[in-house]
């Protein structure tokens, strides 16, 4: 039996971070991955392919918009299958960074197969070889959660894991779920000429976002697809024609849609139900692994990161957790994980950026002393010149000016809002951004304009303006 200082179960973004970091520190590391190549959901089914498809779809959309604006015509229809080939090329290029041989060269022993616990120190691979790990990190990720809808399995459906293997473009697509995955893919597919309908059981979309920003993105999406809120999907049937009939309840009215494909995007399910956690004594809560703030499970030598946790199901969060776990698992440190400065972006067009508390959350926690600074993009010169004026930036600070939240909706918001992540993480006040010299004209000026309001309030409200007037009078 082979023995290791550390076994990493799962080769996604977080697991690869741990394996590489631990090996570089001299630990004997085993990585167990069920697929032939590591990279996890992000590389093969999630972040990478969806963003490649979104980029291709944006090019198509921009071409159409340019034709309308500048009076020329475009012949033919965009080829979705060619775009999917573009997606696979992007995956292949990035796969080089996560290649098995690269990790073996680092000193990581990579095992292919499905690993499951036999007890708290031993993991068996596909019922064969058993490895002993002094410390173990669980990073097995998640998979699409499939709702119990009558006829859905029999009729057949797509998920983010199968969408990219389409052999024909669907003329009509019905999407179940209006979360980030559902909306990103729905908009992208719609831009290739597919008629898309999205059904969401909740009364609103983007329920975790600042409510003032939602109308901007909802308005943009409804120009390209049909959005059904307060909608329950009751039944899916496969017709003799090969088409699928979806029956829904919209509030109290029953409606039916005949479509070519159904895409299920109703959330994710942690991959913890088949890895023998009960044999290891690891505590779970509704399938998610319970951890302390040092990412240690109920078993002291077993740690967990990534989508198996309930906190932040994002690739960049898993990478951050992986960096924390390396020191804790290899050297016995007790570094705590913090999500206070972890942002996220929904890559619809326009994009939606989120950092920290929303205005409502901030007022619930800090009362009405919070300060809100906001700018609409039609008041920012670069967005005006680009003719991309729909959107908003909002920065939320406490009474001392400390940043506690920042939100934006606008073209490429995930890029030009990066500055405020650094500012918040390193304790800068919102007014500090106002002092940064931004080239003119750039999209980042939207954030600067919001920060300028901090000094405007300081200089033109309260007792300070009176003192300044007295000083100026005296100085003259």
3D structure, described in words:
The protein has about 475 residues and is α/β, with parallel strands linked by helices. The chain has helices at about 15-25, 40-45, 45-70, 80-95, 100-105, 150-155, 180-190, 215-220, 275-280, 315-330, 360-365, 380-385, 415, 420-425, 430-435, 445-460, 465-475, and strands at about 1-10, 30-35, 110, 115, 120-125, 130-140, 140-145, 170-175, 195-200, 225-230, 230-240, 245-250, 255-260, 260-265, 270, 285, 290, 300-305, 345, 350-355, 370-375, 390-395, 405-410. The protein is about 35% helix and about 25% strand. Helix 1 runs parallel beside helix 10. The chain is globular, with a radius of gyration of 25 Å. The relative contact order is 0.11. The model has no long low-confidence stretch (mean pLDDT about 95).
